[in-house]
Specification:
six-stranded mixed beta sheet, alpha/beta, Maf protein, 17 strands, Purple Acid Phosphatase, chain A, domain 2
Length: 335
């Protein structure tokens, strides 16, 4: 089967070829095929646009299969904008620099802890006489205030960087992630542990009083990634969240929907997580299954099992992950 890649982006094409090389006899780009097919991207979602491009180009090109994608930056403080308009955020005919400039202008008054965002991507594979296959993914991050990287080049429209993936971490030291769970309305422990934790690049709250996570986010002046627990009745946070930071993938859950460590690890394997984080038991724990880590930070306010109040600190330094329990009766472990 011959695949037409609906892109002329050399980096993107190389990655696609590496991933799909064993599935197609031949892969070519639009330019290599001598095709100039313009598809109007007027969908309301990335999925709409990716599917439309794949199906229209398949019909007009005569190929066996066509792969197309739509990608953009979604900023929470802008209600998800630029979103599907990322490539033309500053208007038709404007380039990446203009898009970036407008985005930075619109975000200049937004504090760091509210600059959460994500790159969203949807890929559609259209094939003759067969259903369209669709895959979607997101990379969580923070919208930086300045450019990073040797080339000073960022994906349109905005220099959002996953704090760990963007260059510059080496100059600032390891990335620091605070992990909290089961706070149940009492974050006084975090104030006592402040000097051991700060500064934080971001914060995970694993449920049971998600509003405490927002207070902690303000206390440490960093963005929050949270999931809801069995005691969180009035929150829109998801039951699970996959976060990519520092070149590592984290699966966040509360844990009440899982009945064994093996089920947690299996879910982590499904989403290709480097670390699975959970709460619910109120007892700190760190274990490993091969290269995958399983972390429970314990409880800040209602510890069980003879443990004291605890939380955890994750340090990411290149390929290395270090986990430190703060005020827990567990020795520091390095992985």
């Amino acid at each position: 089967m011959k695949l037409l890649i609906a892109s002329n982006n050399a980096h993107k094409v190389r990655e696609i070829e590496e991933i799909l090389s064993g599935y197609f006899d031949e892969m070519v780009t639009m330019r290599e095929a001598g095709l100039d097919i313009d598809v109007v991207e007027d969908g309301l979602t990335f999925r709409d646009n990716a599917v439309k491009k794949a199906t229209e180009i398949l019909e007009k090109s005569g190929f066996d299969a066509t792969l197309a994608d739509d990608t953009g930056l979604c900023v929470d403080a802008l209600d998800g904008a630029p979103g599907v308009y990322s490539a033309r955020y500053a208007g038709e005919g404007h380039d990446t620099a203009a898009n970036n400039a407008l985005l930075m202008e619109n975000m200049k008054e937004v504090p760091d802890e509210q600059r959460t965002c994500r790159f969203s991507c949807c890929v559609a594979l259209a094939r003759k006489g067969r259903p369209v296959l669709v895959a979607e993914g997101k990379a969580e991050g923070l919208l930086l205030r300045d450019k990073r990287g040797e080339e000073q080049r960022q994906p349109p429209p905005g220099g959002s960087g996953r704090p760990a993936q963007g260059s510059g971490r080496g100059e600032q030291g390891p990335m620091r992630i605070g992990v909290f769970s089961d706070t149940h309305g009492d974050i006084s422990g975090a104030r006592r542990f402040f000097d051991s934790l700060a500064p934080l690049d971001c914060l995970f709250h694993l449920g049971d009083c998600v509003p405490d996570g927002k207070k902690l986010s303000k206390l440490f002046s960093c963005p929050l990634y949270a999931v809801r627990g069995n005691c969180d009745y009035r929150t829109e946070e998801p039951l699970e969240r996959v976060v990519d930071l520092g070149g590592k993938r984290f699966l966040l859950v509360h844990g009440h929907q899982y009945y064994s460590f093996s089920s947690l690890l299996y879910r982590g394997e499904e989403v290709h997580a480097d670390m699975v984080l959970y709460g619910h038991t109120h007892m700190p724990d760190l274990s490993a299954d091969g290269a995958r880590l399983l972390l429970n930070p314990g409880s800040l306010s209602r510890p069980r099992g003879g443990f004291t109040e605890s939380c955890a600190l994750i340090l990411i330094d290149g390929n290395d992950l270090t986990v430190r329990f703060i005020n827990a009766d567990i020795a520091k472990k390095n992985w």
